[in-house]
Each structure stands twice: as structure tokens, then as C-alpha cells.
């Protein structure tokens, strides 16, 4: 059990530090200098947490990352922060930074030369260009969907392609499934395709299909003047029906054989 005097001392000390910070910021003579000093040290105070990111911490983190690359993995496993790298005085430095804040409040750059014209309003120091320090095939992808919040994805890009689906429709009621329009569209496509395929099969000149009567009507309309004998026309139609039936049977047998051979 934590001793009560220790809790009282910690809370009292933190209240004293926070009240002193508030008074110094409100002071007319020391306020500006105090905020500049905080910005130069990378120190920020709030009632609930203290955050300190100095150049010394970044250099130590960079050395640890070179010695043990597993440190980058631990940083990149955070739900809010990500490891970023930047160049300072021809040296590669690393820092764990909040991803969403970096992407929403920063401009797009490719080198420090693009950031020399922009200064930090808090510290009045030149900005630096930072890039995510990730693995070989891992990428940081920002997906915008106005007016909703941007979605951030860290991982292998093909995984995002298979995990996210896009649609042009939005349900008006909550009980409707988002994929309902796509399902109905796919169902209609299958119905049209299946109906067309059955219509084509039904038109094949084969016994017991509509193609038999279609062939008979076609022969009666075209061969009356060429073949005047009715029995000869029926014989020609019979051989055509026999060939169509054999072709259809061979097609069905070949399809069954290809399916079962796999």
C-alpha cells in the first residue's frame, strides 16, 4: 500500500509546480522569456501530465535505436505515437511523435530546405522535415474522408486494399447494411447473366429445346423455294438437330470432365 504522506507530498509538489508555471506565464515581465525557455527545452506543462522532448533525449534515443533496432519496434507499436527520423547537423536523429498531430498540423516537405522559411510559433525556431522511420515494406498512409476524421494506416499497403471497401452509397437508416446496394447490384448482374446464358442454350438446335422449333420455322421460311419436297426439308432439319444435340452433349461432357479432373 502506498503511504498517504507520500501521496500528499507528490500531489502538493505537483500543485506547487503547476501554480508556479501558471503565475510565470501570466507575468508581464517574465512570461515571454519563460515560454521561450520552455520551448527551447521542449518542455510543456499541463494539469495532468508533463512532456519533455529535448535534443539530449533524441540523441539518446537515436543511439539506442542504432544499437538495438527493437526500440523502433516498441515505439511503432504505440497507438498514438510513431517513430520519426530527421537530419540535424548532418546526423540522423529519431523521435517518437504523435502521428495525428504531426500530419494535421504540418506541411508536406521532402527536405529541411522546404522548412527553413517556416518557424515554430512557440519556440520561434526553424522547422525540420521529419519522415516516418518504418520497416522496408511498411507505409504510413493517410486516408481522407470529409467531413469525417482522417484514417491513418500503418502497415503493408496490399493489406489495406483487401481490408477496406469503398461505396458510392450511404444508408439513410441505421438498420440498413452498407453493402446492401452492392449485393443487390451483384445479384441483378448474376440474374441477367444467367438468363442470357439460358436463353442462348435454349436457342441451340437440339431435341426438346426451343431451338428445335426455331430451326423448323427457319427452314420453312428459307428453303421452301430451294427444296420443294417437305420430307427432304425435314431430313435436313433432323441432321441439323442431331448435330446440335451432339455438340451440346459434348460440351456438357467436356465441362463435367474438366471440373472432375481438378
TrEMBL record:
GO terms, biological process: membrane protein intracellular domain proteolysis; regulation of response to endoplasmic reticulum stress
Keyword Membrane part of the UniProt annotation: yes
UniProt KW keywords: Membrane, Transmembrane, Transmembrane helix
UniProt protein name: Endopeptidase S2P
Gene Ontology terms, MF aspect: metalloendopeptidase activity
Residues spanning the membrane: 235-259
Species annotation: Coregonus suidteri
GO cellular component, one term: membrane
InterPro entries: MBTPS2
Signal peptide start and end residues: none
Superkingdom in the source lineage: Eukaryota
Origin organism lineage: Eukaryota, Metazoa, Chordata, Craniata, Vertebrata
